[in-house]
Model the fold of this input.
Amino acid sequence: MTRRPLRIGNASGFYGDRFGAVREMLTGGPLDVLTGDYLAELTMLILGRDRLKNPDLGYAKTFLRQLEENLALAHERGVRIVANAGGLNPAGLADALRELADKLGVPVSVAHVEGDDLMPFSEGALTANAYLGGAGITACLRAGADVVVTGRVTDAALVSGSAAWWFDWAPDAYDRLAGAVVAGHVLECGTQATGGNYAFFTRHDVRTPGFPLAEIAEDGTSIVTKHPGTGGAITVGTVTAQLLYETQGVRYLGPDVTARLDTVRLAPAGPDRVAISGVVGEAPPDTLKVGVTRIGGWRNEVVFVLAGLDVDAKADLVKAQLAEALAGVATVTWTLARTDHLDPDTEETASALLRLVVRDPSPDRVGRGLTAAAIELALGSYPGFHVTAPPGPAQPYGVFTSSLVPATTVPHVAVLPDTTRHPIPPVPAPSAPTTPAPPAFEAPGSGGGTPEGDRGAAPVPGTGPAAATTRVPLGALFGARSGDKGGDANIGVWAESDAAWQWLRATLTAEALTTLLPETSGLPVARHELPHLRALNFTVTGILGAGVASGHRFDPQAKALGEWLRARHLDIPTHLLSADPAPEGTRP
Done:
């Protein structure tokens, strides 16, 4: 007998997300399961430093406070809670939740998933955690757990593990699991699926977007929606944007299943409802990703304000005056942001910002002594000298790396409500993919060739040499979203009509991307096509250095890289710009 769809929501996209979201989701409408994603690469470093101070810590303390206010409500409404807030200490968080439940007099059972922590891992590692799948969550829910907390599982595993429990899927139900993984990827970042961080945000009221939920069917298809009356919007466009976020390639590798993103189909299914279907799943790899954080050294920074005329000369003067103090520092980076305007009518718009960032293995070489040397220039440097903040001490910075280990070497364990330890068997040996996936490639003219079967494709209508064009920002026609994966960044770009997609596919090569974004020049750039989404996805390797915690760039998580791309101007066929857009994000 077919079971009704699982109604599963999200109440956290990161450690520090909207505190009241748990109550909003519990009171906004019916749910079967409520998930929360609290972990990211930077979070693991933060939790690692917490654990150094107190071995009993290492989990997301916010989650415990949220359940103090909402555990009774969740129990009353029959909603299971599944969250990765356990971080580096899921057993400790589970114990704290049991104490909380006893104090509140709420009769809930608590289970947790562990085995991801691989410390000690390698010299200098602060944390080392394998990305587990959802099978441990499934086992805990099958054993009757009302609350399941995990360490480092994949973000989407919170949803796929819950769906496998609800429908009693077998481990090799790849298409169904892949459908749930795709739904989980849409939900995992919370309000990014409901209009938050959305390229076309002016189309909707996104002042307080509601959190998303999915209705997952037994065949793995789903509908993404939100509670009635909540802010934001669910459209094919908002779902497309989240699907492109922090993914690399057409195969979305996971511990339980490999989801083929080039098979995903989206369609509107009513107001604030988007259907996801067609997802093909393949066997998972026989390895697991391990995220490793380290303390990379010490950093400091000073931002000088250069107002008025002769900005370049003022910057050169400061650099020359500090050259002796900076001698011997391991890494010195100067960045001049020309935020000044011509003939400015305010002092702020008359000013540029010169940013000095220093890094060194020793805190002494980049500590107060160095920043004090910068402040000592105050009365003897360029006219109008001032800085944005007083000098401060050196701060530690982190480094994130990843590696692969055989899945058979990771002790994935579900600790059930009665404290029984239930080992999760390793993933089965993968079979050959049943459907070939296209490799990363460059479109004609990029120097990278084309895939088999694509050579000599017909020209895009209306784009010949005589076609009229208008020079406008790329974002006048196309959406984009970007994010980080360790030291790499991804940029997803999508079109809203078939004609615009054909132009985008032919025009935005990897070579064109590096021309538009000069900071990517010299870095490896891979381009992947997702035609059902009318989208391209680019991976820029190494642009973020050692990851977000190292503060390598002005935008260390590449959150705005896509918006920078949308701000660049190109000659776009005028007929594409003048065409009436279809209802947002619709698909034929």
